[in-house]
From TrEMBL:
It holds the Pfam family SMC_ScpA. Keywords: Chromosome partition. InterPro entries: ScpA, ScpA-like_C. Transmembrane segments: none annotated. It comes from the Bacteria. GO terms for biological process: chromosome segregation. This is Segregation and condensation protein A. It comes from Gloeobacter kilaueensis (strain ATCC BAA-2537 / CCAP 1431/1 / ULC 316 / JS1). The lineage of its organism: Bacteria, Bacillati, Cyanobacteriota, Cyanophyceae, Gloeobacterales.
Amino acid sequence: MPKDAIGILIDLARRGEIDPWDIDVVQLTDRFLHSLSRLDSADLPRSGQAIFYASVLVHMKAEILEGRMLEPSPLEADLDESDLTAAGLPGVALERLIRRRPAVPAIVERPLTLNDLIAHLREVEQIERRSARERPSERRTLIKGPPVRTMAEVEHLAHQEDLEALVSELWQVLTSRGVRAFEVLLEHYRDRVGAFLGLLFLAHRDRVVLEQAEFYRDIEIYAVNQPEDAPGGGALPQSPPAQP
């Protein structure tokens, strides 16, 4: 199995899980996250790159899903000012009657190829590196949480059920302390990579929704409460059963 982010994307195309000439970003994001969780060996740079690419894909997926939600219904598309005026509604009241939808720029205006996607991811990575060099270093009080240095350690943690403990701990912090931002979460959990990886697992299990208004901005976290959760919100989200 590939040990880097680009290799994962190429492997998905070779195995026929994605169409390299017409990428479905929503489908690709889910499969990339699944492949990321199965990496068995990689050094820190590769792990960091894979997690960064995952964050970019999650952002792209969120924009696409938001765009679908904001598409006007056929009724709204056919409704114009003359129709409302003819029905006895003054034209000056249109602003109050029709909710203005924010313009969501189309992420892809033509079929997105695998080469296009890889080029975009590399460009975003270079911009982030330049931005990181320009940002002043911040000092934080590190509290707790074992650092995750390699994807091999991630796989080992999963076998030892330590990953479930990490996910459970993050879930407890999110629900009991009302954490809504990734930077705030880091005030309670010492390891940035481990915290983000845990959030990806929670998002994959549909227990949190991750949103990012713009690239390089803070990640907003929204916990998805379910009826079976304990009153304190500390119920551990279980992983889905393995596919045969």
